[in-house]
Design goal:
The protein is of the alpha+beta class and 372 residues long. 32% of the residues lie in helices and 19% in strands.
Length: 372
């Protein structure tokens, strides 16, 4: 790279992301906060790697520097931030296609570059390629769960060929976080031994037979005395769960809309929240935390370890929670961590179809390296 400021540092590869220690004050290198913007002005870095240094981290560093990762203001470019979601989507489609062909399952690729893959029910709708048979049987025999099968795929008509059923459903998609969530929590063995409860932060002694509620409508109080029916992906007892897979982010909302919640200023240090102009970022997380506060519940966000951007987004919100008694009730877990606590057959299915469990990824709860 061309001349400029020269620093001696160490590159540490963490789940596809490089953190660089280059003499920056410790306050800029704590927790899960990225220090990459602090290095925007450094054009030339001399690397002093230990024998155990990560060559992958070195390659990633040069890729970041050469690709123009930062804009003129020292912020990560949008197209680079979105690469984590696109890369995972590609990987999931590839795994799903390989799994479908190995098992002889009916599936369909989207138009164009085949960036999406959907499975179809078979054997008179008693089986579905996007679900483990045990989980799908439980869904079909539980009326409240079965209703989730009618949730329409929003891009189905535009991006996929016509289907005999008339419409593609959300749970047909190989990248659906709802489908992954139901595969895991509709399986009778997932909550049986308590390990999953511990990972998610469910209350001690929660009944293992407690039925999960998908698409739970939480009543979150507004300042005007009314309630907002915020949808939470999953409720198990006094635990609320938000699940993500290939979604780009946690969405955003106008500041005035979030400020209308009764407990907003009591729960959050709003000046420190991630925000741009008149919008707060990660609005889904903000609403879920408010729901947990109002309902006296704990809250856990579940993401893939291959999405460090979503992990960082969660910690950016969590550090702004003022309510001291609420903080211990907030946590994050990865699909990979949950898979390791799952029954063997489910764990095998997740590895074959989603690639979950095959990789050594970043542990969301500790910031370390899984599998080491």
């Amino acid at each position: 790279m061309p001349g400029g400021i020269s620093k001696v540092g160490t590159v540490i590869g963490v789940c596809g992301r490089a953190f660089m220690e280059v003499g920056i004050p410790p306050r800029n290198f704590t927790g899960h906060r990225s220090i990459l913007p602090s290095l925007a002005g450094i054009q030339h870095i001399t690397l002093n790697l230990e024998p155990t240094g990560s060559n992958a981290g070195v390659r990633l560093l040069f890729a970041i520097m050469n690709a123009g990762f930062w804009d003129d203001d020292g912020h990560a470019r949008k197209r680079d931030r979105m690469n984590f979601a696109a890369a995972l989507r590609c990987e999931l489609v590839k795994s799903a296609k390989k799994y479908a062909e190995a098992e002889g399952l009916p599936y369909c690729l989207s138009y164009g570059d085949g960036s999406s893959l959907c499975f179809t029910p078979y054997q008179r709708n008693l089986r579905h390629g996007n679900a483990l048979p045990e989980s799908y049987k439980a869904i079909l025999t539980t009326p409240v769960w079965c209703k989730r099968l009618t949730k329409v795929h929003t891009l189905g008509r535009r991006s996929l060929p016509a289907t005999e059923r008339g419409r593609w459903m959300e749970l047909d998609s190989c990248t659906s976080s709802d489908a992954l969530l139901m595969n895991m929590f509709c399986h009778s063995g997932t909550l049986r031994d308590g390990r999953t409860h511990a990972l998610l932060g469910a209350e001690p002694g929660a009944p293992p037979c407690l039925q999960p509620i998908f698409g739970y409508k939480a009543r979150v109080p507004l300042s005007n005395g009314r309630f907002d029916r915020t949808e939470v992906d999953l409720r198990i007892g006094n635990l609320l769960v938000e699940a993500k897979l290939t979604e780009g982010n946690f969405q955003s909302a106008e500041k005035r809309n979030l400020a209308a919640y009764r407990d907003f200023s009591e729960v959050f240090d709003w000046e420190e929240l991630p925000q741009v102009r008149d919008r707060y970022l990660s609005s889904q997380l903000l609403r879920n935390v408010l729901a947990a506060y109002a309902l006296h519940c704990s809250f856990c966000v579940v993401v893939d370890s291959r999405r460090p951007d979503l992990i960082d987004a969660w910690y950016a919100v969590m550090k702004c929670v003022k309510a001291v008694h609420l903080r211990p009730e907030l946590r994050i877990a990865t699909w990979q961590e949950l898979a390791r606590a799952s029954p063997p057959k489910l764990r095998t299915f997740l590895a074959a179809k989603y690639g979950i469990g095959k990789e050594a990824g970043r542990s969301a709860s500790t910031g370390g390296l899984d599998g080491r």
